[in-house]
Amino acid sequence: MSVVLPGAALPSDTPDPVTPRSLPHRGGEVNPSVDALRAQFGSAVQRHEVTWGETCAWVDAARIREIVLWLRDDPSQQYDYLVDITAVEHRDAVAPLEMVWHLRSLPYRRFLRLKSALDPAAELEVASIEPVYKCANWLEREVFDMFGITFTGHSDLRRILMWESYAEGFPLRKDFPLRGRFSRSEQLSRALSANPEAPYSMEELSVVDAFHELPADMRERLLREQGQG
Amino acid sequence: MGLTPAISTSRVAYDPPAQEGWVTTRLEFLVNWGRANSLWPMPFGTACCAIEFMATAASRFDLARFGMERMSFSPRQADVLICAGRVPFKLAPVIRRIYEQMPQPKWVISMGACASSGGMFDNYAVVQGIDTIIPVDVYVPGCPPRPEALIYGIMMLQDKVRQQRSLSNDAQYDEMAIDPTSRLYIPASRIDELSEPFGNSVHQTRSAP
After folding, report:
1. Is the distance from CB of B52 to CB of B146 less than 8 angstroms?
2. Residue A111 main-chain phi, psi, to 5 deg
3. A171 part of contact set with chain B, CB < 8 Å
4. Least confident range of A73-77, B23-27, B69-73
5. ipTM of the predicted structure?
6. Where are the domains of chain B?
7. Quick check: pTM over 0.80?
8. What is the C-alpha to C-alpha distance for residues A176 and A167, in angstroms, rounded to an integer?
9. What's the CATH number where A96 sits?
10. In 10 A of CB B163, how many CB atoms?
């Protein structure tokens, strides 16, 4: 498969894209990145599976950051788009919690799902891939908020969906009751005593700090408006 | 002033041009008439009910017929808070603050099942009815309610506004803060003991402020 850079015209021999039909539930064409991962990282890639045409590889959670970094930067992979980060809790005593990363390579038109089981006995900790993909910031905050998995090396690990002072735990865990742990009146009085502005950090509220990262036209406009008082 | 021609009192005159611009009525009626026909809504749309609310405001159903076409996106110029959609606990302090920022007199329409009772979202994140946070005047059932239903609710609210004895009883607009020293005060835990569960949840209690 040839590389098509984003925005470039497709080669003339490229077949028209078709909707995949009659994909097998299990098995099928394996994403070639899995073999490349095995060649690069060896036993860190534990096994892989193809479900409905999508490849999923189980990897060692301890090495996730270098795996993702390699997948992003290697010219033969170029996974330049982090689609999603999430976690799954299974009703499974051995490996109850699994991390999931969805990666897409736009130049190679590949989709790869990485999973790694977390040890339930140890601390629920995974290396943050925020240094690799900036957009992992909010995705990892959501996983932390919902599952209580901490990401080491994350720049700003706070709750993102629930409010800062939420004290009932992590809602998507299996042991979390559907209606929460507190009574309705307790939940409401706690919620009403929360400060609606608390979820915003000073970084989010302050344009000044991010000024030099803003696009040039926005910088210009802000400077002009500041001059007008 | 002083230059008005003397009116002959010898006979009852009916002269419409001379009486133009004159209406005699009760002040309350006039004030209520004015209020009921110029309710400025503060739209608080959080879910699919807001889509129906937008349809209500658009040309086919035309909320402008009720003097409500001016959506007030600032609570300080609003008369009616229309809560359309589910309110999560994270938004509870927000809607409370918006309600407090609205000037008196103010009214609240709870639009749809979720705003009125939590709807099907009997879970950890959703407030089980906004009447646990702010007082509600009209509940519009439906999931979501059709624009006709919302308009019916608005007309019910207009009826309520028209019937208010607003000028003779100003005290009804005083905000009442909870006063634990009052002899009428019942603590939340006691209310829960006395009252039965209500709503669609056995965990829902009456004591929620």
Report:
1. yes
2. -125, 130
3. yes
4. B23-27
5. 0.73
6. 25-167, 179-209
7. no
8. 12
9. 3.30.460.80
10. 11
